[in-house]
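Build the 3D complex.
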Amino acid sequence: MKLPVQLVDGRTIPYVLELRDLDSIVSVREEISEHLPPFCPERHINSDGTFCLNYSPVHSLTIEDEATARAWMETVYKFLKLQERAKGLRKWPNDKAWAHGNAARHQMRVQAAVKVLGKNLANAQSSRLLTVRRRYSKGRAILELLQNGECLYRVWEATKKVANHSRKCICGISGRRRPKALRKCLDHAAQAVELVLALYEWDLEEKRYWDIMQNKICCGTCDNCPLA
Amino acid sequence: MSKNWNHNRALEHINKKLKDVESVTIKDYVRDMSLVSIPTNVAYRVDGVHLYADIQNLSDMLNITAVEGTDCHKRTLRFLDQHYRAVKRILDRVDGRRVDFHSQRLHALFTKPYNSETDAEKKRVQRAVATAQLIVDVLAETGDDDQQIPAAKVRIGIDSGLALAVNNGRNGYREPLFLGDPANHAAKLASNNTTRGIYLTNAARAAVDLKEVDAPEKSPLSKDEVKVCQDAAKLDVTAENIVEEWREDLKENPIGNFQFSRQTPPLCDMDIMALTPANSKRQDMVSLYADIDGFTAYVADNIEDNAQDVVRTLHVLRAEMERVVTSDFEGRRVRFIGDCIQALTCEGTAQNTDEEKSVSESTRLAGALRSSFNLSIDRLKEFGYESGKLGLAIGFDLGPVSVTRLGRHADRIRCAIGRKVIESENRQCACKGDETAIGQAAYDAGSEAVKKLFGTRKKVANLDYVEATEALADDGDESAKNARVAAYAGSPAIIKSDERVVEPYMTGGLEEVGLR
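Done.
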């Protein structure tokens, strides 16, 4: 399929794509790798050159009728425009992408947890500002949730409990002048634990993914790519 | 309507500019050659002494009031005007050449005596040092207590050597521009530190038989060293003469009262050459600096054997940057400062500045400048011209800016001042060659999309036009969305696809980790 992709600066990139249909799931790649690298995990291009357009447990791109075919086509077009931006930026241009491999499952858990824990945490997560640090306290492993280097709360790894239950809740949505204690605020203590564990496991899975990929050849189009 | 940058339009202009400099002539500058209106495809190798004088208390003047109102701007302009006049008078009397006065920074050149004379370089440096001391002495006297204008605090940097003089001008601005180490080293010495005094590079020190020092920026000339130069230079003018003449001149040609009006956007319609103190412009606007990173080293590497390509590169890059500012984004170029463009933009009406839109459009302008820069470098390489490893560092900020021309009638110098003018330059200076930075005020006034784009560092790498427009539009910035819709007018399917959220994944490792 010939697909000329027009950029906002007036340039047109003449893509020639190869499509393959397998039970209404259509995979797509460049017929000959000309405008895109043959493989790049950072740019969501599989080792066989196919585009990883979606994470199917969350968003299906199965083609069943005209509307779904249109959605598929629009996704491919936008994906190719994003590729041009990635080429210029030397990284994926936005934070609307799923984590690699099995890490996406944990990303899904993180998203579910921050949705419950309020807008501030959800925004911080979508901007990738939340990280988890593992350290030892009194001889026991403890996981700390950090935002811009500042610790928001801690979770004991073994017991899977927040270290200080009586601290005020991080949600900021109780509507009271004085926020509720974390342990009394709906199921937020459990969600806070889930968030930290999911972030930690997301991180571990990402590392595992890149360990497995370490023998693959880097295309050199992205800075900070673990394969580089 | 939002502004736009178009690849083919830029390409066409770059090709035209490349044609202007197909053949370039480099001449040695000798006695009685004119440095005014140098043809585009000609450059002179000029052996001379470059003097930079930095007035260090300009920021104090701008910050004299808590609010940046008209008072502090008027006082600052008056302060600069008085000092510009005094310095011009000095340079006229000592046979020096004023190259430019860019806000607080004076650049002057000494080419005499010419190299045909013995010890010419030594004599030039001595003359420059004596003049520097004269500037320090005179500017210490040219404050005005009645008008609450303090005396200027000055730091001076001097270097000597070979520089390349090219045409600095676009549209009636025919002063020469000097490229190369001496101009840059002198500028760096002048602006490097807070301590006042006269500082010489080691090259200039060697010319007047002074010992080389490890840190020239920390080694001001002593009174005795200055005295030796003064005695040798024998300037037939004293600080008292100049101050007296300057006072007379002020009586005969008083500094007009500064009166401000707004310029109805777009700013490309602002006729700077028609501005005077009584007809000055002032409003909230965006000040932007875009500086070619690595240019000094590039000139140093090529000035001896390949000066033609330096002229070509500079001509193409600056002409294209000017076109993007003026034509694509309808802004106003204030001046070129060497390899740097200083520009102003504003969105809104005759009465009000639309701050959010001004910041959005400036963000996309910064992207457009980078796109044009990258395209120009590509074209120069395709033509086989050496363009080194250059980058573009961009900084901008939003705030009240006054634009006028200062100095005596028929010798006026354009000037744009404001706290955010200084801040935008500082932001640019903090950037690497692939970075664009936004000032705090512009960040605060920007849309949520602008804030997200620049992040907490207020700095972003590799921001070109496509990225700026698409990233802002995807995050809901109205100006960028309008620009994107306009770019795809007549293609509703593309506009529809732009509304789609794409969240790609990466399955490549699944087979290997046994999850399938």
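Chain B has two domains: 34-252, 260-498.
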